[in-house]
Amino acid sequence: MFKLIEIFNISKRFKNCEALKEVSFNVSNGEIVGLLGENGAGKSTLLRIISTMLNPTSGSAKINGYDLIKDSKLVRKNVGILFGSEVGLYERLTARENLEYFAKLNNMNKEEAKNRIDELIKEFSFEDYADKQVGKLSKGMKQKVAIARSIVHNPSVILFDEPDSGLDFKAANIVFKFMTKCKKENKSIIFSSHSMENIKIYSDRMVVLHKGEIVKQFDVKEYRQKYTDKEINDMLFNLVCGGDIDD
Length: 247
Ligand SMILES: Nc1ncnc2c1ncn2[C@@H]1O[C@H](COP(=O)(O)OP(=O)(O)OP(=O)(O)O)[C@@H](O)[C@H]1O
Ligand SMILES: [Mg+2]
Hints:
Bound molecules: adenosine-5'-triphosphate, magnesium ion
Distance between the termini: 27 Å
Number of helices: 9
Radius of gyration: 18 Å
C-alpha cells in the first residue's frame, strides 16, 4: 500500500531536553494512526515536525513523496494541522472570515473557497455561529472552527493534535466521523488524544510514545480481538507510564 507518511529516525533536542529519539513509522493511505503518551511524551513535537513547523535535529520524513526539508512548501500544501490547545484563529474575525482568510493563504480561488467553506460549516454543524466573531465563541465552538480551518485546503495528510480536547460528546463525534470519512477518501490521519477510548475506537494503529521514544505500535483491531478491553487498558496504562508488556 502507498505510504503517505514515512518517518525515518526523527530526533529533536531542545536546549535541555531530548523531546524525540529516533522515531520511525509509516502511515498508509486510508489509515488512521492514534498517538498516545503522557504529558511531555513528544506527541505535539512530532506533529509539528511532520507539518514543517519545526525542524528535526536529525532524521527525515516524506509526505506524499515530498521531503520534509527540501520540499517543505509542497509538504505544507499536502498537510492540514490542528493544535488542540492553541486554536490559532483571529478573534476579531468571524468563523467564516477566518476560513476565508486561510483559504486565501492556501491560494484557493474565491469560488472554490466558498464552496469548500459552506461544505465545512455544514459538516461541522456551525451554521448558527459561522458569522459570529470568534472571540465571542465558546472553547468547543472555537475548536470546531479551528478544525475546519486546518483542512480548508483539503489536504491528503491530516494531523490532529488533541482534536477531542474541549469538545462535548456530540462535537467529538462529528470530528471523529469526519476523520473516518477522510479515511474512506484514502487520506492519512495521525491524531493524538488523552482519551484511550477514542484512540481505541477510531484508530487502525496505535503508536505509544514515552519520553520521546516509540515504546509500542500495534494493530488496534487485532488487539481488540486478542485481548479484553481491560487487558488493553492495563497494558496501555503501563506503557504510557514507562512500563513494559508481554504479549
Ligand atoms: N519549544 C520548546 N522548547 C523547549 N522544550 C520544548 C519545546 N516544545 C516542547 N518541549 C519539550 O519537549 C517535550 C515534549 O513536549 P510535547 O509538547 O511534544 O509533549 P506532548 O506529548 O505533546 O505533551 P502534552 O500531552 O502535554 O501535550 C517536553 O519535555 C517539552 O517540555
Ligand atoms: Mg501536546
